[in-house]
Amino acid sequence: MILNGTKFQIEVWNEIKKIPKGSVKTYKEIALILNKPKSSRAVANACGKNPYPPKIPCHRVIRSDGFLGGYSGVGGIKTKQELLISEGYSDFKIN
Questions:
Q1: Looking at the domain that runs over 7-86, which CATH code has it been given?
Q2: What are phi and psi of 40, to 5 degrees?
Q3: Cβ distance 22 to 87 under 8 Å?
Q4: How far apart are the two ends of the chain, measured CA to CA in Å?
Q5: Please, are residues 47 and 69 in contact by the beta-carbon 8 Å criterion?
Q6: Among this protein's residues, is 47 annotated catalytic?
Q7: What is the mean pLDDT of residues 51-64?
Q8: Strand 25-26 to strand 61-62: parallel, antiparallel, or no bridges (unpaired)?
Q9: Is 63:49 a contact under the CB 8 Å cutoff?
Q10: Which residues pair with 26 in a beta bridge?
């Protein structure tokens, strides 16, 4: 798949593709992996701009406090919740 986005967005999306089903990472964890520890919000923004959900599974990225954050795919946060549950992950908080 050829990804169209900024260099940073593509870095984020490629890292997100590595998260296995049933697992999550936080926006902060992705920022740390990319050696950009102060870029948690930029990671969240890159997730929000993801034009490829669920192929790039941004639903597997949650906030550090355990809440889901947002979801750019069809159905929004409800779909994110359903996708995580269908993959066997339910240890998250709902606003």
A1: 1.10.10.10
A2: -55, -45
A3: yes
A4: 34
A5: yes
A6: no
A7: 95
A8: parallel
A9: no
A10: 62
- Give the active site residue among 30, 47, 58, 68: 58
Which residue(s) pair with 61 in the sheet?
25
pTM for this prediction? 0.94
How many angstroms separate the CA atoms of 13 and 86, rounded?
Answer: 21
Q: Which pLDDT tens digit goes with each residue over 16-56?
A: 999 999 999 999 999 999 999 999 999 999 999 999 999 99
72 pLDDT higher than 90: no
What is the identity of the amino acid at 79? T
C-alpha 66/C-alpha 49 separation (Å) is: 21
Q: How far apart are CA 41 and CA 55, in angstroms?
A: 22
pLDDT confidence of 95, banded at 50, 70, 90?
A: confident
* Domain spans, the chain: 7-86
